[in-house]
Fold this protein.
Amino acid sequence: MKRCIKWLTAVLVILFSLTPVIAEEKMGDITIKYPVDNVTFKLFYLGEWKAEKINYQGDFKDAKITDDLNEAADALSAFVKKNNVNSSASEKSKDGEVNFSNIKKGIYLVLGEEKIDNKVHYRVRPMLLSMPAYNANTESWSTIVNAKYEQETIPGNTSLEVLKVWKDNNSKNRPKSIEVELLRNNEVYDTKTLSKKNNWKHTWNNLDGDYEWTVYEKTTFNDYSVSISRSNRKVVITNKLNKEIPPKTPKKQRIPQTGQLWWPVVILAGIGVVLISIGLSKGKADR
């Protein structure tokens, strides 16, 4: 009996030694420098970096967002506000910075709320961050960045212009019109149709400067990806065709005939030679 117990113990020890140990997932920290306190910043997990682009996951899996990282942040920000996407983490700024800890590996969208302080409107620019951060082929799990932001004295009223840009080589599949929504504090305030008739643009005037105003493209297309860029009171929405349009193959054209046609002369000359030969042969035969 004791021998059986010893054998069983030995077998269990061997089995446990062969069981792979699950490595603990490495986590990182993000510090964002921002001069205004008590402002809420949110992190949104987008997915992983694969094949030189973001492999979107979760709520962003079906988002038609451009692969251009310089233009993706604003489009993702509008997507979040329109679809009420939940954040992965949320923290408030204090003493000039915001701190996030225990952040897993991936690509993140960072959004900061707009705030009015002493009649000054502060607007945080959306940005993308990688965890870990890479610099000169060195990875860092502790990232410090400065938030980019805009500030302006609050007017009684403000305006916002939207412009639609197409990058599709004048494709025949381009829609005749699209709809854009004006959001006031993330709620739909107005909807407008953009088309060739209004030069694909519209301006909203007399907007209350105390609110946050955002433009979102309501119409979506499977063949196009969207990017949004904003500069103060102007929003540019760009739709780029995902697939290349092959150039049209020109039809083969016949070179136009000019001048005298020589091919009949050659044929007639050949016939003449044959007839002369026949005549000479017949003349010899008659002799």
Summary: The chain has three helices and 20 strands. The helical segments are 2-18, 69-83, 263-286.
